[in-house]
Structure formats: structure tokens, C-alpha cells
Design brief:
Blueprint: H1 6-9, H2 20-24, H3 36-48, E1 53-57, H4 64-76, E2 81-85, H5 93-105, E3 111-112, E4 115-116, E5 118-119, H6 121-125, H7 127-138, E6 142-147, E7 153-157, H8 159-169, H9 189-202, H10 216-227, E8 238-244, E9 258-266, E10 271-279, H11 285-300, E11 302-304, E12 310-312, E13 333-337, H12 345-355, H13 357-360, E14 363-365, E15 370-372, E16 379-383, H14 384-390, E17 398-399, H15 408-412, H16 415-453, H17 466-472, H18 489-504, H19 507-518, H20 537-542
Parallel strand pairs: 1-2, 2-5, 10-13, 13-16
Antiparallel strand pairs: 3-4, 6-7, 8-9, 9-10, 11-12, 14-15, 16-17
């Protein structure tokens, strides 16, 4: 019937006279296609004959000739409006790749003659992910898990998938939780809110290099996400559904303990440890307060470590900076409210703060403008919508006991105390610099005074060295005094050498030597010259 004109096929709906089909029956136009090649040929023929609109349904298309014909029609006819109606995600990679190629051929946001000509953006944007899920399902790593309240299909990991995820995240299998088989039974509103909270805190960045061939609108949106402030940690920094036992062990927790929806450990980003509770506004303030009481009992529980020393149980699993003095708080708890239920989150937060004041209220430091939170639990709240929009760097987090919103890092910390400590350290460093400057000046003054008092050599005028100055100064009784205290070391050496020469060759020895030189020789000639020497006056007096 695909070859008949619409006027013939739908004449009975237009109120016209008896149509040809009603008169002769459908036998004249109906042709049963019994071979696959005939079906593909007919489908390609329909696509080739499309001029105004082309509507394609189904999520299992994988015939290359048929998909190529659609791409050719979209590329050659700019005015052709193309619809792709998917019944769930694409089942085959060939269809996912086909949807991506259509995005390359035509921008989904573009309008020609005021009409949007491509209607399949959501399916194409998630085509790669759905194809990856199909591969995981083929290897029995995931299986279907129902659907959300919005109709989105759910997948959950199998036991084999949990083992693969534990290997990828480098975690023990005991910390990977369960398979969450019943998550989709009630619409999976809470698991989906937990996922959205994790994404809001993580804020993953797209790989722009892989979007080089995508439409400009998609690249602009990806660029905006890449330029926005980053999130906290990596995917390996998050744990979900973690039991916090007040009795029993980590693997077999006893009754009465809490179970954290999310545990975040990202010390490299300033969040050593954070527990996150996600509420869809179904629980009362009293129920949430009871949950915080369970957190407090878990924080106070102590166990012995490997050396037999008692310490808080939570420190045996997570490494956090140790506190000191009056500042040793418990790990913070963040409540993320998703207004799906009937309860008003603002009223719930106000009532919750009043019921748990003994758990989070600090002690005022009257010397400085901050509070001490020793063994107190920082409690912070926000909503999923603002977390998704602003992320952890936005001032959308409200901590109990503080007047205004803060960033996540300020809300779970103590910025006023940190500022007071920085002022104290700055003043201490300033005092140390002043003391060092005074010491330097005193040393310079002593050096200048000593330089002014330093003696000079009486012969050459050279200033004494420290060693020569100490040697020339008077010493104790019984110690020989310096022979030339007014001379430098060099001049003293010359003077000592000259003195030794005078003592060795005195005046008498010199005269005798001169007489010996002037004595006549045996041959009658003078020994030292042509005349007879006359003794010096000193020598005559001595003879």
C-alpha cells in the first residue's frame, strides 16, 4: 500500500464519496513482502520519495542501505523535516552511529523557513552511552532494572558487573554495595536523586577534543560546562549506601546504625571527609534528627587499632587531619533536599536545626570572633536544584548556626577561626622579623664599634686582624707578653728577624771580622785590598 497516494488511502476519513479501496477492496493495492531484500528495497523507496516529512520509528534499525538512504535524503533536501521516534534507547551501534551522523549533517537547533527540521537531539546525545550499555549488557555486566517515574530506562550492575567496577575503581568488593535490583520498583526517585547529587558535586568536564565535529550549539554548551568552576574529587572519591555501624563490624553492621547515601573523600580538593544525605522531602524533621543521633553515636564509637590503642572507628577507615586543642570536630554532614514530596524543606530545616542543636552548636571564643566545634557535628543543607546549577563553589550551602549562605568548603570548615589563626601567625611573623632586625642592628653596631677600636700597625698603618689583635693584648700572669704589640704580623716578623741578626752579629764581632779582612797576607799583599786597613774607632778602644 505504500505506493498509493494519500488521497486514495484516506478518502474515507475526508468524508468523500465511496473510495476506490472500499469499492474494489484492498486486494488491488496490497502486496505482501516475503523476502528481507524486498522489505529493505521498499523502505529505501519510501525514503527516496519523501519530499516534505520523513517519519521513522523504532530503535532496532541496523540495515546500512536503509540508514544511508535516510542520510542522503536529509543531506540533499534541506526542507525535509525528519522525525525519528525511538522506543527506548538504540539497540545497535549502527543506529547510534547513524544518529550521530545526522547531527553532523544538520544542526538540530537550526530552523529553516521557521520550522525545526530535525527532531531527535536527546536520543543522539545519549547514543554513545546507550551503545556502551548495550555492550555491557551483552557481557552480562548490567541488566534491566525497571524505569524511573519519568519513563527513563534503568540499568543496574550484576554481580559480575560489581566485580568489574571494583577492579576499575581499585576497591575491595566488600565496599561496592549490592546490585540494587529493586531500585526501579517505585520509580527509583531516591537512587536518581543520589546520582544527581553526585553529579552536582563532581561536575565532570566534557572532552572538547571529541566534540570537534559536533554542531556548534552542542560545542558551545560543552564549552560553557568546561569553563564553569570544577567539582570536588573524581569518580573514585564517592561511595554510596555506606553503613555506619554503632554495633558489629564494617562488613556485618549491627542494628541501630545509619547508612550514608554518599561518602565523599577528596582531601586534595579541601574535603577530607563528607557524609551526604539525600531527602526527597518525604521524611519528617524528627526522622532526620534521629538519623543525626545515629551519626553521633557512630562518631563516638571507639575500637582498638592494630597496636591496641583505642580510637574512633571512623578513623580506622578514612584518613582525616587530626585536630588539636579545642578544635577537634566530627566529620560534616550535608543534607540535600529534593522537593518531590509534600513536606516544605524550609520548615523541615528549621525544625531539624532546633531538634539537633546539642549536636552542632559550638562554643564562642570571646577573645576572637569565631566558635570552637570540639566534638561537634557540622550540619549543612542545600537543595538539589541549586547544587545542580551552582556546584560546590556556589554560595548555596547553609550551615546550622550561621546567618548566610556559603560555599561548600566554607560551610564545612571554620573560616573565621582560620582567619584569626592567620592573623595570629602574621603578627607572630612580624614580631620575629622585628626581633631579627633588632639583632641585626645590634650586631652591626658592635661590629662598627669594634672596627673603630681596632689598632693599626705603627710601621705600615695596616689594621690588625682579629687573631693579631688578640695576640697583641696583655695576657694573664705567667704568660709571655707579645714582643712587638704595636706591629702587625708582617712587620713583627721583619722586626724579629732584624733583632736576631743584631744579636748574632754584634759590634765586636763585626770589627774583628773587618780586621781579619784587612790583615796582610803572607806574600805581603793586603788580604782585602791594595792598602792596609786602619782599625775602626770601636775596635781600637776594644784593643
Amino acid at each position: 500500500m505504500y505506493r498509493e497516494r494519500p488521497e486514495v488511502l484516506f478518502a474515507h476519513q475526508d468524508g468523500a464519496a465511496t473510495s476506490v479501496l472500499e469499492t474494489s477492496g484492498t486486494t488491488v493495492v496490497v502486496r505482501v513482502l516475503t523476502r528481507w531484500t524486498d522489505l529493505v528495497e521498499a523502505m529505501v523507496d519510501v525514503v527516496a520519495g519523501a519530499r516534505e516529512q520523513l517519519v521513522v520509528t523504532g530503535s532496532r534499525s541496523r540495515e546500512n542501505a536503509y540508514l544511508a538512504a535516510i542520510e542522503t535524503a536529509v543531506a540533499q533536501q534541506p526542507d525535509l523535516v525528519h522525525y525519528r521516534v525511538l522506543y527506548g534507547p538504540p539497540r545497535h551501534r549502527a543506529l547510534a552511529d547513524h544518529l550521530l551522523r545526522l547531527l553532523e549533517l544538520r544542526d538540530p537547533s537550526a530552523r529553516r523557513n521557521g520550522i525545526k527540521t530535525l527532531h531527535k537531539r536527546k536520543a543522539a546525545r545519549t547514543a554513545t552511552h546507550t551503545a556502551a550499555l548495550a555492550d555491557l549488557r551483552t557481557h552480562r555486566l548490567v541488566t534491566t532494572g525497571g524505569s524511573t517515574s519519568g519513563g527513563e530506562a534503568l540499568r543496574h550492575l550484576t554481580l559480575k558487573g560489581l566485580e568489574a567496577a571494583a577492579t576499575e575503581l581499585q576497591r575491595p568488593l566488600s565496599e561496592m554495595g549490592a546490585t540494587a535490583r529493586g531500585a526501579g520498583a517505585a520509580g527509583a526517585s531516591h537512587p536518581m536523586a543520589v546520582n544527581e547529587t553526585t553529579i552536582g558535586l563532581l561536575r565532570p568536564k566534557p572532552d572538547l577534543a571529541k566534540l570537534a565535529t559536533d554542531p556548534p550549539a552542542l560545542r558551545a554548551a560543552a564549552q560553557a560546562i568546561a569553563d564553569a568552576p570544577g567539582g570536588v574529587g573524581s569518580i573514585g572519591s564517592y561511595w554510596t549506601e555506606v553503613p555506619l555501624p554503632v554495633a558489629g563490624s564494617w562488613s556485618t553492621p549491627g542494628r541501630g546504625g545509619a547508612q550514608a547515601d554518599i561518602v565523599l573523600t577528596a582531601p586534595q580538593d579541601g574535603v577530607p571527609l563528607l557524609f551526604v544525605e539525600v531527602d526527597n522531602c518525604h521524611e519528617t524533621a524528627e526522622e532526620l534528627a534521629d538519623k543525626l543521633e545515629k551519626y553521633a553515636r557512630f562518631y563516638r564509637r571507639k575500637v582498638k587499632d592494630t597496636v591496641g590503642k583505642a580510637q574512633p572507628m571512623w578513623r580506622t577507615r578514612w584518613n582525616t587531619p587530626p585536630g588539636g586543642g579545642l578544635e577537634n570536630p566530627y566529620p560534616p554532614v550535608l543534607f540535600v533536599f529534593n522537593p518531590l514530596g509534600a513536606r516544605n524543606p524550609e520548615r523541615t530545616i528549621a525544625r531539624l536545626a532546633a531538634l539537633t542543636r546539642h549536636l552542632w552548636a559550638g562554643t564562642k571564643d570571646y577573645e576572637e570572633d569565631f566558635h570552637h566545634y570540639d566534638r561537634k557535628m557540622p550540619v549543612t543543607t542545600t537543595t538539589l536544584a541549586v547544587l545542580r546549577e551552582h556546584g560546590p563553589h556556589g554560595q548555596v550551602f547553609h550551615r546550622f548556626g550561621r546567618p548566610g549562605p556559603q560555599t561548600l568548603f566554607d560551610a564545612i570548615g571554620n573560616p573565621r577561626r582560620q582567619a584569626a589563626l592567620e592573623r595570629h601567625w602574621a603578627q607572630q611573623r612580624a614580631r620575629e622579623r622585628e626581633a631579627q632586625e633588632r639583632e641585626r642592628q645590634e650586631v652591626a653596631q658592635r661590629a662598627a664599634k669594634r672596627t673603630a677600636q681596632r689598632p693599626a700597625c705603627a710601621r705600615c698603618g695596616t689594621k690588625f686582624t682579629d687573631e693579631r689583635w688578640r695576640a697583641a693584648q696583655p695576657t694573664d700572669w705567667g704568660t709571655p707578653a707579645d714582643s712587638h704589640p704595636d706591629f702587625c704580623e708582617r712587620c713583627k716578623g721583619r722586626a724579629v728577624a732584624a733583632g736576631c741578626s743584631r744579636r748574632r752579629f754584634g759590634p765586636a764581632s763585626s770589627a774583628a771580622t773587618r780586621r781579619t779582612r784587612n790583615r796582610p797576607s803572607r806574600r805581603g799583599s793586603p788580604a782585602g785590598g791594595s792598602h792596609v786597613g786602619v782599625p775602626e774607632e770601636g775596635a781600637a778602644e776594644a784593643g
